[in-house]
Amino acid sequence: MPKPSASKAAAETGKTRRFISGVVEGFYGRPWTMEQRTELFQREQKWGLNTYLYAPKDDYKHRMYWRDLYSPEEAEKLVALITAAKKNGVDFIYAISPGLDITFSNPKEVATLKRKLDQVSGFGCSSFSLLFDDIETEMCPADKQAFSSFAHAQVAVTNEVFKHLGQPDTFLFCPTDYCAAFCTPNVSQSAYLHTVGENLLPGIDVLWTGPKVVSHHITVESIVEVSSVLKRAPVIWDNIHANDYDPQRIFMGPYKDRPTDLIPKLRGVLTNPNCEYYPNFVAIHTLATWCRSGGGQRDVEMTGDDDDEAGSDPRYSPRRALTLALTDWLQEFLSTDQPGGPRPLNPTHLKKESSDEEPMQTDVGDPVYVPGSGDNPLFTAEPLTLDDLQLLSELFYLPYEHGSTARTMLTELDWLKAHREAVGEAETEMTAEWRSRAKCFDVMCVAVFTMFNRLSNAPNRSILYDLYNYICDIKSGVTLARAYVKQLGGQSRSSGQVMTDDPEPWGFRGGLSGEFQRMLPCHGNRDLFRHPPMTSVYSIRPFCPEDKTEIQKIHMEMQRGEAKAPAAALPALISDGLAGGQLCPSPSCGLVLEDERGVCGYALGLTDATAAALNNQRALPGDFPSMITMQLHPRVTDPAPARRMIGSLLSLMKTSGSRGVFCELRQGDRRMFDFYSKLGSFTTLKMAGLPQDVIAMGTSL
Which domain of life is it from (predicted)? Predict the structure, then answer.
């Protein structure tokens, strides 16, 4: 029996829905503990955030075994968690992910889903979310008979569950195409998103990650576009601090590259941060500052100019938000979270009370050891400072950028390596500069070691244990870099031992994954600091008949990569005849890309594609009489030669009299679709007779 409508009642009373702000626990990996979540609610209340979305991917009963009801013991924990959230003014949203194996058209499956959510509703939860992210898009035969598309199936079940729960004030839907990169052919023309926007009930909000899964920038223009398609403002599920995709990275930079002008355009923002709970202090704290900054007035702390932030937001400064967060975090580092932490620097000693009984042997009241004049001095742990935390943040900043100190260290190491010949017998001006910069680099290395030592001795061990693997790793890398620079400068023989051909295991990046990556041609291409560029040498030459065999090989190999079914099941393209050798390119309208291993790409054109189009039952777009096709072997990882080749071909086509060209792509060929889209001149075309799974793109010449 459907429950009374909460959202409808709110609409009738004119109640304004509050801006959703907070945290989503939605990563892959070990979920946070109940104690950590309770502490999170307290922080959210303190910082002005209002929402927690429960969606840990590795909670079996959230995703893999979503049909199973919670046991009495599990129920007790969830009740306590929901109660703690309410106590701190935090809206607890329970999310469930049935998309791995649900049969949408089976009433028993939908009834099971309702039963599960009814159970959670009985725990005191009044906000819910259905997630259909990271699942296969192929429907089962029963669903194909019942629904015209995957989107229709998801929307039908979501609407039914929403009404069953009484149309709660907060109900979130995560689409399978949850970012622009997943939309075919793009956001504005996505059939999936249009179906969601037109059919999802208006009281249901939609989650969206931005241009990509992990978005570098989220612009107002992009949100306006997706809002128009969805017919509602989205809730951003922000993965900018997520690290579940790489166990070697953690992110402690500020929330940034999202203008506060977004806030009026959004329903809300939830950060899906690092898997490790305690290092998320910065991510959540700076998000809270960002949310407050969008309220029409600047935070007092945010006033003033940011000289180091070009195009800075007048309401929000990431640099200052980071300083505020680190200042607060320092206090938590310095508080002892458990017994047995490091000794205080000046412990007070209690006097022993007289007793006839033999006292237990403890350190309380033991005499203080005072070293003699010739003894080693006592080790004293230096207290952690704000500068140490600033350095920590800059070394583990954000997915798309290093912090300023990390960039400086990489730049200096690169310069010292490139100019190592300056260190010789004769003392020159360049030699003096080299030694001066080497000294500065050494100072930065020492600062990293000092930070490591102070962190290692910080009283709050829980934070330290979440960070320990990462700070050990960076210390190891900096140690090797420092030793290398000293070896170049001839300052230390012993330090050069780590650069030998037979190093200790700690002297190199180990593990099978590292060895796999070093064998790949693209390894290093996505480093945030790239110098010199990691590219091969390519040459472009005119096509000749002898190239047909190699072109056919590339064509067939790429078809096999596209096909999830046999190649015969792929929709036919007009250009298949060109690449397959049945059609010859027009004179002077064919190019071949070569590397050291031979032919690795091609670009072919027909100045008049009328006959070829008729043979494939197509009608040419009026302003685009010519056709091109281009393909690259997977080993070509650098887009630059491909851009040069397509630019040359378009120039040749124009010289041959063409006024416009088009190309056809299968929807599964995301690589070439992204390539043409990023050129900027190609747009999607409407073309009569085009198969359902084929996209046409064109450009005027």
Answer: Eukaryota
